[in-house]
Amino acid sequence: MYVAVKGGERAIENAHAWLAEERRGDTAVAELSIAQIREQLSLAVNRVMAEGSLYDPDLAALAIKQARGDLIEAIFLIRAYRTTLPRFGASHPIETGKMHCERRISATFKDAPGGQVLGPTFDYTHRLLDFKMAADGEVAEAPQGPATGQDVPHITEFLNQEGLIQTESQSDDTPPDLTREPLELPANRALRLQSLTRGDEGFVLGMAYSTQRGYARNHAFVGELRIGVVAVEIDIPELGFSIDIGEITVTECETVNQFQGSKTEPAQFTRGYGLVFGQTERKAISMALVDRALRWEELGEDNVGAPAQDEEFVLMHSDNIQATGFLEHIKLPHYVDFQSELELVRKIRAEAVEASALRAAQEAAE
């Protein structure tokens, strides 16, 4: 086996060269630039940043180009690069209540305090192919809407004024960092949320959809979905105070879920929560639904055996990089393993044929 692998080095080099040629495509067509990918495929860039756990649109765009548009491969590249970066410090928790919102909607309150902002969304499009885009026409500028300003209150807090929604517990403990420590079960909510925010969007969406179909008794309303820019602050020991080091775009979702109460809690609404890099609202909503389903034990609910309630099942299978690695390793050489199994199957079949022949001889003798 080792000789075969060594002898395949030339083939591997040729495969890499062929990959580069396929990645470039027809040289008569202009090559995509990193800036074009970053600006025009921004939702793909956002997904790669979120699931790669690294906020850098240029690097995410480069990874997408290198991966030929395979987003999971691009996420793999970003995660691998992330491990090479030094860590200089930790930022403060971002203040989403001070978000400069580009989009802010609520499915629970029509006249939400602070107003609703539809923002850039596919929600009201007809899902018909726009052939004007094929003509490379210029897009007219969108009219400038009213600015939302700062300190936009969270809508669910208005339910809290009447005591109708569960009050979230606060902790000063620093949560574990999933990017530096392996996932350990059972996981607290902070760790579960980290795992979900960088989990595969399709998997988390599937788990969320299962809760809506009845697997987990999880009927949710979107209390608030907001997308916008927040400041990132970090402490500077030499200065003795914190400073803004930049801004990032995030999507935040809080769901409002009906809760009949338990032996220890009165009837009230409970929350699900999602927070993701970039404009990634489908992922944020899905994350909030799954977060709520995983809180069954904390809220004193029954476990009905739903997949989304199974912490081990959800968290250990949501990571697309781990899943990809385990899945794709089976296409690599397994010559020795297969030969041993091949010999075993041959032996079993030979023994079965011999036993059958022996029985036939005994029956004939009788």
Q: Considering DSSP H and I runs of 4 or more, what fraction of the residues is helical?
A: 40-55%
- Order of neighbouring strands in the sheet with most strands: 1-2-3-4
Q: So how many helices?
A: 13
String of helices and strands: HHHHHHEHHHEEEHHHH
Radius of gyration: 27 Å
- Roughly what is the average pLDDT, rounded to an integer? 86
Largest sheet descriptor: 4 strands, antiparallel
Number of strands: 4
Give the termini distance in whole angstroms. Answer: 51 Å
Q: Structural class of the helix and strand makeup?
A: alpha+beta
The stretches of 5 or more residues where confidence is low (pLDDT under 50) are 1-5
Shape: globular
Sheet-strand content, in percent, reads 5-15%
Count of all domains:
3
Produce a short descriptive summary.
The chain is an alpha+beta fold. The protein has 3 domains: 2-82, no CATH class; 96-123 and 146-325, no CATH class; 334-365.
